[in-house]
Amino acid sequence: MIIDYVGVKEINGSLIVMDGVKGVSNEEIVDIRLDNGTMRQGRVVQIEGERIVVQVFEGTRRISLKNTRTRLTGHPMEMPLSPEIIGRVLDGAGKPIDGLGDIFPVKKANINGTPINPVSRVYPKNYINTGISTIDTLMTLIRGQKLPIFSGSGMKHNDLAVQIVRQAKISGANSSNFGVVFAAMGVQKDVAEYFKKSFEESGVLSRVVMLLNLSNDPIIERTLTPRCALTIAEYLAFELDMHILVIMTDMTSYAEALREFSSSKGEIPGRKGYPGYLYSDLASLYERAGMIKGHNGSVTQIPILTMPNDDITHPIPDLTGYITEGQIVLDRSLQGQGLYPPVNVLPSLSRLMKDGIGEGYTRADHQPLANQLFASYAKVIDARSLASVIGEEELSPTDKKYIEFGRLFESKFVNQGFNENRSIEQSLDLGWELLSTLPRAELDRVDDALLDQYYKGDK
């Protein structure tokens, strides 16, 4: 039996309150018919006896307290899925906006997903090559990993996201079983056009699914976008056996939409006004990355977030760091020096890197080389601190060598062109070339056999 509920009790922002509703479930989708005949959708976000609170996706403007008709659909929000979804451009709620018509679904899936049983998880191994030296060599992205990028407002994380989409590839995977799901949340229209144009011009749009939530779209849609993106990724990975890289930008916009929604519900705020469940909410997204026994595909995540006031202790990057397996940190001072990508090496890391590199994956010398580059660059920072006190001319000859190494490391290794795609061999060889500018005795993280093979400096 289909029942229409006429009228609403209360309207508050994007929420409507209804009384006398029976047999409803949390997250259930409702169809809302306005008195002018137009249709909107919402979802049940709170149930108190026979009183329910419904979040309206398109906003509550022009909704009447008396004549609005609401119908329960009996199911949560579902995403239509089909192999033809690859190459399509969708809005933040998963509806096509590329003018190519609707997606004819093979199946529909609940966008909230289901938790992956830890017992059925496969430990992530093998790396994804991004063509960017700092990432591939020092904080390697492993298939099935979640590795966020911590950026700041106005920095070049959008360019970096485009470059990763354009260049990313997996060893042993060809173009037919590797794809990208790209979700943009709260972006300006010109930024959305930049993403679309960049993917079209580079020819990678045919293997990318784009979800675009613009800054003037309803904030409620922004809370759906990452869930729709991950539902698509899970379908492609675990039913079509593809390797999927999910890039989500900007998670700060998502968290702020969540804060606004929580405030409108009258919930007690936590740190900096964000809801107390921000940690579990972010975890429900990030933990959808991984590999599952019995399936050949994988879901790898790169969430991008802008740190308010470049504060890495802000709740969003802080909680993200607890959940994910490392981070790539962009530095404003490096960008100010004209370096791209401005990756700050020392606070960046990949916790799963050790199991996806080395013999059989990248090259046998990869891990010791990375350890030595980290150690040497840390000494560069110490030498620069000392030079700021006593002057560079007063430094010891070894410290001067480190100062020079730092300049070369940043200008040649960290800095690379937007269109420059380096293989892992090129990046590793470049690392050895730079280490060869230091005295051999200073390279204490590498054994003599590797030094005999790769060290090109004065013995």
From TrEMBL:
<keyword id="KW-0066">ATP synthesis</keyword>
<dbReference type="InterPro" id="IPR004100">
    <property type="entry name" value="ATPase_F1/V1/A1_a/bsu_N"/>
</dbReference>
<keyword id="KW-0406">Ion transport</keyword>
<dbReference type="InterPro" id="IPR055190">
    <property type="entry name" value="ATP-synt_VA_C"/>
</dbReference>
<keyword id="KW-0375">Hydrogen ion transport</keyword>
<dbReference type="GO" id="GO:0042777">
    <property type="term" value="P:proton motive force-driven plasma membrane ATP synthesis"/>
</dbReference>
<dbReference type="Pfam" id="PF02874">
    <property type="entry name" value="ATP-synt_ab_N"/>
</dbReference>
<comment type="similarity">
    <text>Belongs to the ATPase alpha/beta chains family.</text>
</comment>
<dbReference type="GO" id="GO:0046961">
    <property type="term" value="F:proton-transporting ATPase activity, rotational mechanism"/>
</dbReference>
<feature type="domain" description="ATPase F1/V1/A1 complex alpha/beta subunit N-terminal">
    <location>
        <begin position="9"/>
        <end position="65"/>
    </location>
</feature>
<dbReference type="InterPro" id="IPR000194">
    <property type="entry name" value="ATPase_F1/V1/A1_a/bsu_nucl-bd"/>
</dbReference>
<feature type="domain" description="ATPase F1/V1/A1 complex alpha/beta subunit nucleotide-binding">
    <location>
        <begin position="131"/>
        <end position="350"/>
    </location>
</feature>
<dbReference type="InterPro" id="IPR022879">
    <property type="entry name" value="V-ATPase_su_B/beta"/>
</dbReference>
<dbReference type="GO" id="GO:0005524">
    <property type="term" value="F:ATP binding"/>
</dbReference>
<feature type="domain" description="ATP synthase A/B type C-terminal">
    <location>
        <begin position="355"/>
        <end position="455"/>
    </location>
</feature>
<dbReference type="GO" id="GO:0007035">
    <property type="term" value="P:vacuolar acidification"/>
</dbReference>
<dbReference type="Pfam" id="PF22919">
    <property type="entry name" value="ATP-synt_VA_C"/>
</dbReference>
<dbReference type="Pfam" id="PF00006">
    <property type="entry name" value="ATP-synt_ab"/>
</dbReference>
<dbReference type="InterPro" id="IPR027417">
    <property type="entry name" value="P-loop_NTPase"/>
</dbReference>
<comment type="function">
    <text>Produces ATP from ADP in the presence of a proton gradient across the membrane. The V-type beta chain is a regulatory subunit.</text>
</comment>
<protein>
    <recommendedName>
        <fullName>V-type ATP synthase beta chain</fullName>
    </recommendedName>
</protein>
<dbReference type="InterPro" id="IPR020003">
    <property type="entry name" value="ATPase_a/bsu_AS"/>
</dbReference>
<dbReference type="GO" id="GO:0046933">
    <property type="term" value="F:proton-transporting ATP synthase activity, rotational mechanism"/>
</dbReference>
<keyword id="KW-0813">Transport</keyword>
